[in-house]
Amino acid sequence: MSPRSTPGPGVTPRTALTIAGSDSGGGAGVQADLKTFLACGVHGMSAITAVTVQNSLGVSGFHEIPAETVRDQVRVVTTDIGANAVKTGMLASAGIIEAVAGTCDELGIGRAAEIPLVVDPVAASMHGDSLLADSALGAVREVLLPRATLTTPNLDEVRLLTGVEVTRRADLRKAAEAVLALGPRWVLIKAGHLAADSDCVDLLVGAGGEVIELPGPRHPTEHTHGGGDTLAAAVTAALAQGRDLVDAVRVGKRYIMRAVAAAYPLGGGVGPVSAFWRVSDVPW
Ligand SMILES: Nc1ncnc2c1ncn2[C@@H]1O[C@H](COP(=O)(O)OP(=O)(O)O)[C@@H](O)[C@H]1O
Ligand SMILES: Cc1ncc(COP(=O)(O)O)c(N)n1
After folding, report:
1. Which residues' Cβ are closer than 6 Å to ligand 2?
2. Which of 218, 227, 266, 267 is 20 to 30 A (C-alpha) from 114?
C-alpha cells in the first residue's frame, strides 16, 4: 500500500530518519526530532551518533558511538523501511561525518539524489558546551554541506563555518551567501539569537537565487532548548510528506512558532520548546 500524508490503521505512513545525538533531558537531539516527526504525522527513525549526559543546566559529557555503528543504523533502516527524508543533528566527530556522508552517497540521500537531506550543523549546546570536535568543522564544510539539500545554521554556527558575524537583520543575506558558497542547495539562517531584533525573521536563500524571509514574533521566553532541532525536524517531516522545499520551510516555521509559544520551564535551567501543542487527544 502506498504511503499517504495522514497515517491510519494498516496504512504505512511517510518516514523520516534523524542521525543525531541523544539528549538525556529529552528537550533536544533525537528526542526532539522524534517528537516532532510524530506531531507532523510521519514515522520517525533514529541513528544515534552520541549519548549526551545533559539536563536543563547543560551538557556535562558525551559518549560517541563508533562510526561503523552509526553507518549500520542508517543502512539497516533505509534499506528495509526506507526514508522519505533524512536529517542530521549532532555528529560529534569527523569520523562520524565521513561515515554519514559515504552512507548518504551509497543510499541516494542528499542534494544530488532522490532523498532530501537536511543538515542542522550542530556545534554546541545553547549553554555553550561543545557537541562537535573542533577538528570536525572542516569535515562539516567540505564533506557534509556540499551534500545538503538544506542546511539550517544558527548565528554561532554561521560564524564558525564562514567567519561572518551577524549583528543585525541586514547581515543575514551576506551570511546566507557565505554558507551557500560551501555547497548546499538551500540555506535557512535562523535568527533566534539576533537579540537586537524585536522579531525572529529567519532567511531562506537558494543557490538558484531564491530569497525568502520567514517572519515571526519574538516570544518573551528563555525556554528555547531544542528549538533549532525542532524547526529542522518539522521541515524534514514536511519534506517526507512530499512538500517542496519552500513550502516545507514555511511549515517548519509555523511549527516552531507554536512550539516556542508553548515552551515551558523544566529543572533549574532552560526548558524546552513544546511538542504538547500538537497533542489534543490524550487517552484518559
Ligand atoms: N524567543 C523566540 N520567539 C520566537 N521564535 C524564536 C525564539 N527564539 C528562537 N526562535 C525561532 O526558533 C528557531 C530556532 O532558532 P535559533 O534559536 O536561532 O536556533 P538554535 O536553537 O539552533 O540556536 C528559529 O525559527 C527562530 O526564529
Ligand atoms: C544531543 C543534542 N543535540 C543538539 C543539541 C542542541 O540544542 P540546543 O542548542 O537547544 O542546546 C543539544 N543540546 N543536544
Report:
1. 20-21, 23, 28-29, 52, 54, 89-90, 122, 125-126, 131, 225-229
2. 227
d(CA 12, CA 41): 11
Task: Compute, in angstroms, the gap from residue 191 CA to the centroid of ligand 1.
Answer: 6
Q: What domains, with CATH codes, occur in the chain? A: 15-275 (3.40.1190.20)
User: What is the residue with the minimal CA distance to atom 7 of ligand 1?
Assistant: 192
pLDDT tens, residue by residue, 163-196: 999 999 999 999 999 999 999 999 999 999 998 8
19 SS3 class = strand
Structure ipTM over 0.85, yes or no = yes
What is the DSSP track for 67-88? HHHHHHHHHHHHHHT--SEEEE
pLDDT tens track for 93-135: 999 999 999 999 999 999 999 999 999 999 999 999 999 999 9
Cβ(122) to ligand 1 under 6 A?
A: no
What does the pLDDT average to over 243-271?
97
Q: Is the CB of 197 under 6 A from ligand 1?
A: no
